[in-house]
Amino acid sequence: HNMKYDYNCIKKLLFHMGAPCEKDGQMYSVKFMFKRKQFEFRDSYKLASMPLSAFQESFGLPADLSKKEAIAYNYYTYRNVREMREEVEMYEQFLTEDNKKIFRKNLEEHYVFRYRPDEKTGKMIFDPKEYYKFYLKYDTFILMKGLEKFEQIIDEIVTALNKKYNMDHKINLHSFLTISSLTNAIMGAYGSYEGVYQMCGNLREFCGNFVTGGRVQVNKKYQKKLINKKIADYDGVSLYPSAIKRMCEERGLPLGKAQMIDSKDKKVLDAYDYYMVKIKITKINKFQQLPMVSYKNEEGLLRYINEITEPITTYVDMITLADWIEFQGIEYEILDGVYYNKGFNKTMGGIIEHLFQNRLIHKKAGNQAMQLILKLMMNSAYGKTITKKTMIKKVIINNDKKDTYIGNYFNTIKEFEPLTELQWEIKMDSVDNPYNMAQVGSFILSYSKRIMNEVFDVANTNKCVLYYTDTDSIHCNYDDVKTIENEFRTKYNRELTGKQLGQFHIDFDLDGAKSEVYATQSIFLGKKCYMDVLESTDAKGNKITGYHFRMKGVNTQGIKHCADKSFNGDILEVYKHLSKGKELEFVLNPEGGRPSFEYANYGVRTRETGTFTRSLKF
């Protein structure tokens, strides 16, 4: 689980059977020989993307696997990693106050740690190596039992789909490295991609321009200001599954091969089932608080705009183009594009709806494991359709073949370095040949944005302030939600608020809250950098408060450490300070917090406490 760390700890001890499966800094699997036995490591986090500490509750594992971990990672250095006796007080210097209590309790409950007074000094000592090994052993048990439960759940999901579609498929969890690959195979097995073509080469390169992720924006009028109002976090219900369902209800996955558009006449677009066009925008006629029109600048950064001083070139599919015309009144010219005109495959929408309704049933019944896996599957259902290209590959070469290999491929080799005493790792340019279905991914992403755009436009038309959006959520005034609901119903004849696909709900979380949770103060510094002071009532009707905060590039413990060090523990004051344009330094691995690791060619090491910092200024 999180294989990259484990692999980098021991990679110099292994004899590799080919290069690891990795991409964009993420490791998926590696095959190797060790003591004449062949092994394969796989990263289970790519299937079950949750901390190992969450496995017990999420998968409902046996109580005898329960453990509270209190390990002082920074204690284990080259100097003392083999120590078989250590003073308890020395070890506790690396633990927080809460973890010290757990640590002492662990020592008393398990004899294997040899917790006892020292014969000479009388101080309490224990075996730190056995202590660490004990909890590593439990981690492997928890991982094993969690994956067994995962496998059982996949069997149940496939059995239900077999019954629904009158088929007899068998899907083996361990045939896949990622939840996206697994879900993609399930979608394909039940006919979602019948008649849908994959693409590669120049066509894939062109269609890749139409794939843009979720929109993240701050309303510039309110950026870096303290908002003292009752604010709601209005979230779309399972946005990407909602997009898939709606897309298949109204259209579907485009069938057939892409054809080139050979006319610049806009009217020709009306004849196509689906199209993707490169356009030049010459004018924007309608203002939006959170603009929808976007383009990539010279640095490749996505920019959202309400006006232009000179024409801009960008890429849109039929859904995005229709939205920009309706919601921002753009004027444009067609430059290039492709179209599909062989009809649609609507199967994927039915499968998503089936998975979603089953998730609701299991969630209501308290079946946490099943509902969680269904959620992971639905959210990753379209991921493999937009697989990104890679132009770098790694190969592992034995010492005796290194010189010959370098001589044969010197013109494509970028780096080479010793991996072990017997093998070399060579990084080289690679021809990118894999296929994807970018037309499907872009279609789904455009529908997800349409779901949000409709709400944005209703709010904008009725002068309801929108402060911030991040993909599937909107920060707006709490009292405006009712107005947005009513006006949306009038315009679209649909109920906006609810728990079904395509609907929205207020979604702040606060421990102990038994009534609606809302923010009373908020600061929006920039993309993925904001905070809310939350308020609600508990079971007795007493007011309770808390924080909801994000800071891209800074972890939670870094923010809390900064607040404790400089602002008497008040997180709001951290954001106030930054909102004034002042710089702050954050320690991402403070004393008593979780450790931080650094990867390099030689392996992995734990950073010294307090040395991993990041400074921010807005």
Distance between the termini: 36 Å
**Quick check: average pLDDT?**
93
Class derived from helix and strand content: alpha+beta
Low-confidence stretches: none
Biggest sheet, in brief? 5 strands, antiparallel
Amount of helix: 25-40%
Strands in their spatial order, largest beta sheet:
8-22-23-10-24
Question: What percentage of the residues does DSSP assign to strands (E)?
Answer: 15-25%
How many strand segments? 31
Rounded Rg = 27 Å
Shape: globular
Supply the number of helical segments: 16
What does this structure look like?
With 618 residues, the protein is of the alpha+beta class. It is built from 16 helices and 31 strands. Helix 9 runs parallel beside helix 13 and helix 10 runs antiparallel to helix 11 (368-379). It starts with a helix and ends with a strand.
Observed structural traits:
single chain, 618 residues, alpha+beta, five-stranded antiparallel beta sheet, four-stranded antiparallel beta sheet, 16 helices, 31 strands
